Amino acid sequence: MRRECRGEPRRLVIQLARLGDVVQTLPALDALRQAHPHQGLDLLCPEPLTAVAAGSGLCDRVLPWDGARWHAWASRWADNPVRTLHEAEGCIESLGPLSYERVYSLNQHARCCVLAQLCAEPIRRVSDTEAWEAQLRPWAQHLRWVAKERGANRVHLADAWCGMCGVLPRGQAPLCVPPAAELPDDLAGIGERRGLWVALAVGAGEADRCIAPAVWNQWIREFLAQTQNGHVVLIGSRAEGERAQAILDSLPTLLHGCVWDATGRTTLAQLMCLLQKCQWIIGADTGPLHLGTLVGTRAIGWYFSRARVHETGPYGEGHWVFQHATQTQPHSWPIMESIALMRDEQRQSLADWTLWRSRMDRWGAFFDDGSETAAVESSRADIWRACAPVLCESMAA
Amino acid sequence: MNIFQDNLSRLAPGQQDLATAVTSAAGGVLTIEPSKTGSPSARRSGRWIHSAYDPLREAQTWADTHAAACQSGETIVVAGVGLLYHVELLRKMLPPEAALAVLIPNLDEFHDALAARSFEAWSESILWLSGSPTEVAERLTKTGRPIRCLSYTPATQWDAEFHRALEEALRRVISRRAGGQLTIALVGPIYGGSLPIARYVKRALETLGHTVQWIDHSVHAASYEVMGSLKDGRNRQVMQGRMADLLSQWTLASLAESPPDLVLSLAQAPLTLPMLEHLRKKKFLAAMWFVENYRHLTYWQQMAPGYEYWFVIQKESCFEALRQAGARHVSYLPMAADPEVHCPMTLSGDDRRMFGADLSFVGAGYANRRRLLPALLRHPWSFKLWGNEWEGAENLRSVIQLNGARIDTATCMKVFNATTINLNLHSTTGEGLDPQADFVNPRTFELAACGAFQLVDHRSYLPECFTDREILSFRDFGDVPALVRKWLGDQAARQAMAHAARERVLAAHTYVHRMQDLLGQIGLSQPDRVGAILRGERQQEFLLARCNDDQPLQALLKDCPSGQRIELKDVAACIRSKGPISALKREELMVLMLDEYRSETRDLA
Asked: How many domains does chain A fold into?
């Protein structure tokens, strides 16, 4: 980490969303660091997710935001406003000096905007807010349009966040060394034995993005049947432990020695260590899938419901995404197809699913099915030129 | 020194009167027996007050349950004495600054407790409260601290009347001292007798300075009525049921727009149990004033657990039935009158001729009325019968007015005021007088508020509302003709009685009084929520006083309208009105941040 100098101009990125979003904020941190190498750079994110960026070297400090405490204060205000305000003040104070020269608020909700103002240096806040908003506005409008229209957008969310921070993507995905974290004894053997180790994210943040345990059960049986020395590690939160148990319950006992249940058993730092020990991670569009890419694990995503590969696919080179054709729950799943990819990089097609491979170029990440690469680059360049004309001009120069 | 004297010496200084009184008390109320663990336990009238196995463990469970809710600035008042294990363990769990008081309704029981086991230092800081309920209530409220009442029920049943009277006294004191402004969502019915009462309640709450959000479902009455015209009973039921569900959802959506401190429903309000449970989960406080005879209208059985507070117009058997159905707090709240509507009128000669009579009755054609009223025909006085649902009552045709049309409140008031003797006969589905004649109907209070003379069938609760100098009642309908004859001939006595009845209503039986009692009861039960608002602890002046030297917060509060209740959302609104957030101070931004989190807390989606 860089040494923090008092009085030195500092920048702050605010990301208050979930695990996947925090991971996909790191390309923006990476690009900001490159663009402003002599300025301090911090990230403010939900307290439970600080480990994601803490060891990345992409920022100087990771400030924890404890939303639950703010919720509690809000409901307690009436009991004692003085004490509530003092406690809230104490929380802000505990974040350290907050006179940021520039604050980038990546979430477009009022809470995040207020937080941005709280963290900014007062003079800057008053004088520069309009300029800050001018930079954010086109990208915010673009993201709103994408969320609403679900059009043919090909600019990745992580790259749009780079745009909101006034920087171009670096053209390569950030890689992090997981913070040192010892795994529980019974999980310490993961990745130690020879073979193909696959982490399987059993759940997803939202119910409609979850894949049924029966599907995963079938995937594991096929994978272990086809792969000599194959190992599967089930990962997820404590709440997802029941899903993992349902998967395990219907597996033949003989296969149990090849399947490890780590759901609810790891801290975020331990999960990063665990993911690093696997060659692949497979799952729906969910936080652990993205976390895996951050530690160098290759990802295969099954994207369906509202998940869209071009916006939130795994960031970086060499990941794969099976995108379902409709927003309804799929009837068939790319089980054999994903196993073939892991085993031999063999691309097989399946009705109602399109296979996309992740690539990187000067505009950031994009997904390619081999059919229209030039057109894709042109459409992304158009969006960048529309949303960040000055930045594009400077790049051209 | 024996145990009794040792314990006596620990009574706090200033409680010498109590010490003297308990010394001369005879005791002998409690039977002391060793428990299985060896510590003494006790029975009263043969029933165990404490566990026969392990009274300490039992008391610890009780203390664990209650200690968490107790706040340090409050006076915690414990009802139920026994051997005071529960008080000892609660005292040990509370911070030293929390005041703990124990009610002593029976000095003999207290004497037995002091003699049974050795109290230690914990007992020195207890405020022991004896005397009449009114004295105890005054003493408690003089402290100025919020009061939280706890009950150790195994020991309270023998002094139920004392505790009831104390609760009422405390409720009255709280409501008298209430200076705060609540925001109350009032949920009315689609139609029916509780609809006008909802209007009276609204006015009463506003008179008391509270803000009322009336969720008025009467605007949907026409649609509901149209559905009632469906001939197929099943279809009718399905359609009306769905409409009630929709209106329940509508109520929820309305509440989400601006979350109130209290949701107050009147009987027949279209709020389903699932909606009420959802509200409860979201920490909304809901109360129901069930202004119906619980024996006739029984849908409360399905709704009982949905409301935190039930207010009913009947007592013991009704309380028990509701509790068995899952109600948590049930209180008695009788009907009342609204003096703005129910008042003496000066009528024109034409109105007197049109609406007046020697004897009148206003009401719907219930079975008992159809059976009894014909006995009032063919007498030397004039008799008029007003109201609807008299179809088929051929023997009353000569006295039915306006062809049995429903009459509105204004017409009703004219009849009351123009009539010499108003007959008030409570409805029942039987043939005679109501065999379970307990509650007093609204008509009793309304007639009295009009200064109109009335003759009412006797009710068991009538004496606690009016004396026999204020209202004339009969227990046998056969006595009515003679009473009418007698009182028609004594104008001065009629006027005196009617005047006294009106005075009594104005002094004690208006909807303002009822709402004071209702809010006082909830405030007593919730000292740190509704109670705090009622005490004025959300008013600008109080908050400013609490700021001490916090100048930034003082400045924020001073920007808000003076003399008003101030909540986080009000401070935030005031700040937002200043313009772009970039120009705001740090503390202003923090308030906005808190407000953003607040707005999510009550999200009903």
From this structure: 2
Residue A18: helix, strand or coil by DSSP? coil
Residue A83: inside a domain, yes or no? yes
Q: What is the DSSP string of A296-355?
A: T-EEEEEE-TT--HHHHSPPSSS-EEEEESSSSPPSS--HHHHHHHHHH-----BTTEEE
**Does residue B71 sit in helix, strand or coil?**
coil
| Residue B17 Cα, gap to closest chain A Cα (Å) | 37
Identify from A89, A100, A111 which residue to disrupt to test chain B contact, counting B C-beta atoms within 10 A and taking the largest count. A111
pLDDT of residue A370: 78
| Residue A81 with chain B: CB contacts under 8 Å | 543, 546, 553, 557, 568, 571
Spatial separation of the C-alpha atoms in residues B448 and B504, rounded to whole Å? 8
Structure-block tokens of residue B342? 């129910």
Domain that holds residue A15: 10-164
**pTM of the complete model:** 0.72
Residue B442 CA to residue B335 CA, distance in Å, equals 5
Q: Does A80 touch chain B (CB under 8 A)?
A: yes
**Whole-Å CA distances, B420 to A256, A390, B369:** 93, 91, 20
User: pLDDT at position A61, please?
Assistant: 94
Residue A74 to residue B598, Cβ atoms within 8 A: yes
Query: What is the architecture, at CATH level 2, of domain B183-333?
Result: 3-Layer(aba) Sandwich (3.40)
Nearest by CB to A118, from B533, B589, B595: name it. Answer: B589
Q: Could you tell me if A19 and A160 lie in one domain?
A: yes
Chain B residues lying within 8 Å of A84, measured CB to CB? 594
**pLDDT at residue B541, as a whole number:** 84
Considering the four listed CATH numbers 3.40.30, 3.40.50, 1.10.287, 3.40.1000, the one that applies to the domain covering B3-152 is 3.40.50
Q: Residue A5: pLDDT band by 50, 70, 90 thresholds?
A: very low
A82 contacts B593? CB cut-off 8 A: no
pLDDT at B10: 84
- Residues A194 and A343 grouped into a single domain: yes
For an interface test with B, give the residue of A65, A83, A85 to mutate (most B CBs within 10 A): A85
How do B40-44 and B30-34 pair as beta strands?
antiparallel
Class (C level, CATH) for B349-509 = alpha beta
The ranges assigned to domains in chain B are 3-152, 183-333, 349-509, 539-601
For residue A99, list chain B residues with Cβ-Cβ distance below 8 A: none
**Cα distance from A46 to chain B (closest Cα, Å)?**
14
B chain contacts of residue A67, beta-carbon cutoff 8 Å: 597
Torsion of CA B404, B408, B409, B410, to 10 degrees: -100
A82 vs B584: CB contact, 8 Å cut-off? Answer: no
Q: What is the ipTM of this complex?
A: 0.88
**Contact assignment for A79 to B528 by CB distance below 8 Å:** yes
Q: Is the pLDDT of residue A78 over 90?
A: no
CB A135 within 8 A of CB A166: yes
Residues A299 and A246 in one domain: yes
pLDDT at site A1: 35
Cα–Cα distance, A43 to A59 (Å, whole number):
7
Q: Does A95 touch chain B (CB under 8 A)?
A: no
Other Cβ atoms less than 10 A from the Cβ of A396: the count is: 7
Which parts of chain B sit beneath pLDDT 70?
1, 12, 177-178, 601-605
Which residues in A lie closer than 8 A to residue B571 (C-beta atoms)? 81
Report which of B419, B393, B418 is spatially closest to residue B404, judged by C-alpha positions.
B393
Please report, for residues A99, A201, A323, the alpha-carbon distance to residue A340 in angstroms, rounded to integers and kept in the order given: 52, 19, 16
Contact status of A1 with chain B (Cβ, < 8 Å): no
In a domain, A382, yes or no: no
Q: Which of A107, A129, A164 is the last residue of a domain?
A: A164
CA angle A146, A20, A54 (to 5 degrees): 135
